[in-house]
Design goal:
The complex is a heterotrimer of chains A (151), B (185) and C (40). Chain A folds into two domains: 2-84, SH3 type barrels (Roll); 94-143, SH3 type barrels (Roll), CATH 2.30.30. Chain A has two helices and 13 strands; from the N terminus they run E-H-E-E-E-E-E-E-H-E-E-E-E-E-E. Chain A has helices spanning 5-8, 78-84, and strands at residues 2-4, 12-15, 21-31, 36-42, 49-52, 56-59, 63-66, 94-97, 102-112, 118-123, 126-129, 133-136, 140-143. In chain A, the strands form two sheets. In chain A, strands 1, 8, 9, 10, 11, 12 and 13 form a seven-stranded mixed β-sheet that branches. In chain A, strands 5-4-3-2-7-6 form a six-stranded mixed β-sheet. Chain B folds into two domains: 3-93, PRC-barrel domain (SH3 type barrels), CATH 2.30.30; 101-181, SH3 type barrels (Roll), CATH 2.30.30. Chain B contains three helices and 13 strands; from the N terminus they run βαββββββαββββββα. In chain B, strands 1, 8, 9, 10, 11, 12 and 13 form a seven-stranded mixed β-sheet that branches. In chain C, 15% of the residues are buried. Chain C starts with a helix and ends in a 5-residue tail after the last strand. Chain C contains one helix and one strand, in the order αβ. Chain C has 40 residues and is mainly α. The chains are: A mainly beta (151), B mainly beta (185), C mainly alpha (40). At the B-C interface, strand 3, strand 4, strand 9 and strand 12 of B face helix 1 and strand 1 of C. Strand 3 (22-32) of chain B pairs parallel with strand 1 of chain C, so a sheet runs across the interface.
Chain lengths: 151, 185, 40
């Protein structure tokens, strides 16, 4: 089942074992190399916590289910801290080709809710296969050669 | 492949392909007049009032130059001056050609150097100079234009005067013809 | 000084500060187009 970053932002996060609401989705941290979601960021600012994708029992249309509350953890490295601060957020990120030309702003990203694997990037009216992502960081998401149609 | 001027390249962010981070900004463009190519760039740190960065970027380490960024594979492409070729690590800043007077062998001034024109893609070939003619209008002269160059003047063959172009469109064709006339092809 | 006078003063100060920033930035950014030394 296909999901998108925009539509899943703000979705409530619930513990499967206790049925308690733990917070809501603020960001999705992506592993650019594997082109999949690595972790879900819950909450904002100093209190932001992460849950690894592997700890989710399900990413549903109405709630993100975490196996157990203990799966929530604070950011453990610089990259996770940057993600918690929203610096790595893909929605709104500049899309840059590996040739050094700007392709536009990333409007949304779709992914498989079952596996967390990224499917497509939406840039304006263009849909780009997630396989062309070469890297992503605080400045830009870098897309491979085939996406650049500049002269 | 596209034509860019050195002033368009200066100030561009240097972005890592793998990290998506803007790790530096282009400061000086360093080129070899003899080889007709870009040899490297010096860097500024990112930030509104940020100054010079110690690291430099040799041309071999550049993945691509585009209209919006200079791409490198990762941060290791940026090297200390000691690890870079001498021309890049310790550039001869007194040989800044901007504003140089362009003099023919015969002693006529064609104007001043306004910019450098490069063909960028995966390498940086210098195609010519953008000049400011004595009357103030812009023009272009093809490489190899100079017999000699210093920080104050560019000396060019007399024949260059016939090859002054009004726009970049003409420059490409002028380069080939110029080289043929000079006996280089 | 009346209100208009103060307003004009503030605007002038802001303009001077902005220009100062631009000049400082330009100096710190530096940069040029440098020709390598000729061989031999």
């Amino acid at each position: 089942m296909s999901e998108s970053f925009r539509s899943s932002a703000g979705r409530k996060v619930v513990s499967r074992s206790s049925a308690r609401e733990l917070g809501s989705v603020s960001h999705l941290l992506v592993d650019a190399r594997q082109r999949r979601i690595a972790a879900v960021v819950i909450g904002r600012g100093k209190k932001a916590q992460l849950v690894d994708w592997t700890q989710l029992s399900g990413f549903g249309p109405d709630a993100v289910m975490v196996g157990d509350e203990s799966a929530l953890r604070p950011p453990s490295d610089d990259r996770e801290r940057a993600a918690a601060a929203g610096k790595l957020e893909l929605v709104g990120k500049r899309a840059l080709s590996e040739q050094g030309n700007e392709l536009g702003e990333l409007d949304d990203v779709t992914f498989d809710a079952g596996t967390g694997v990224l499917e497509e990037l939406l840039i304006g009216t263009r849909r780009v296969h997630a396989g062309s992502v070469l890297g992503s960081g605080s400045y830009a998401v870098v897309l491979g050669e085939s996406q650049d149609h500049s002269p | 492949m596209l034509l860019m001027t050195a002033s368009q390249i200066r100030g561009l962010p240097v972005v890592t392909v793998q990290g998506g981070e803007d790790v530096a900004e282009v400061r000086d463009v360093i080129y070899s007049p003899e080889a007709g190519r870009l040899v490297g760039v010096t860097l500024n740190k990112r930030g509104f009032l940020a100054g010079r960065s110690r690291d430099v970027l040799p041309a071999e380490a550049i993945h691509a130059i585009g209209q919006d960024a200079v791409m490198v594979l990762d941060e290791s492409s940026l090297v200390t001056p000691e690890d870079a070729p001498e021309d890049v690590g310790h550039p001869a800043t007194e040989r800044n050609v901007l504003e140089d007077d362009i003099l023919t062998e015969g002693g006529a001034s064609l104007g001043k150097v306004a910019d450098l024109v490069l063909l960028v893609g995966s390498s940086g070939e210098v195609v010519g100079y953008q000049i400011e003619k004595p009357g103030g209008e812009r023009g272009y002269i093809p490489l190899p234009a100079q017999l000699s160059v210093s920080g104050v003047a560019l000396v060019v063959p007399n024949m260059t005067e016939e090859f002054v172009q009004d726009d970049l469109v003409g420059l490409g064709g002028a380069v080939d013809e110029f080289r043929t006339r000079l006996g280089l092809t | 000084m009346d209100a208009i006078g103060w307003l004009i003063l503030v605007v002038i100060v802001l303009v001077v500060v902005a220009v100062a920033f631009v000049i400082i930035r330009r100096k710190r950014r530096g940069g040029g187009v440098i020709a390598t030394k000729d061989k031999g």
